Amino acid sequence: MLNYPEGSIITAYIQGLSILIKRTGNRMYRRELSLSTTEWPILVILARGESLGISEICDRLDRDKGHVSRDIAALAKRGLVRKRRDATDGRQILIEFNPEAEAERLNFLAIMRERSDKLTEGLTEDDLATLKRILMIMNRNAREMRGSDLQVPTS
Predict the structure, then answer these.
(1) For the chain, domain boundaries
(2) Helix (H), strand (E) at residue 6
(3) pLDDT digits over 109-130, tens only?
(4) Do 75 and 43 touch, CB atoms closer than 8 A?
(5) How far apart are CA 102 and CA 80, in angstroms?
(6) What class has domain 12-144?
(7) Alpha-carbon distance 77 to 40, whole Å?
(8) Integer distance in angstroms from the first to the last C-alpha of the chain?
(9) Cα separation of 82 and 75, whole Å?
(10) Under a CB-based contact definition with an 8 Å cutoff, are residues 123 and 131 in contact?
(11) Residues 141, 133: Cα–Cα separation, whole Å
């Protein structure tokens, strides 16, 4: 285990960065696409072209099914996403970007790319490769922590 000097715990840096990224996303997606703070994260997940069940979306966002369902209904009403039955399991409803909203999906992806480019400005290709590798490891570790009862040191 690493011994961090006080004030340099990595989770504090990550949390601060996460808050800042979310705030700038909230402003940008509201201004550019009239998306709420709870709608745009759903579109981030669906933008790669995946079709996902509501439970999977809830798991990825760590959000309540009722809230996600309301956001999906609002996005569907605007024509951005659609619901369809899973061909292999008729009980399952899948959510995906509406194929008729391809221009909106491409615009959304362009905004995501612009934000990513601005965030990583000044990093080399090697820096980015290292960062992605580290983030993948940390993501895996965080997923493992999610289901465990971590012991908090008392001293």
Answers:
(1) 12-144
(2) none
(3) 899 899 999 999 999 999 999 9
(4) yes
(5) 9
(6) mainly alpha
(7) 15
(8) 15
(9) 8
(10) yes
(11) 13
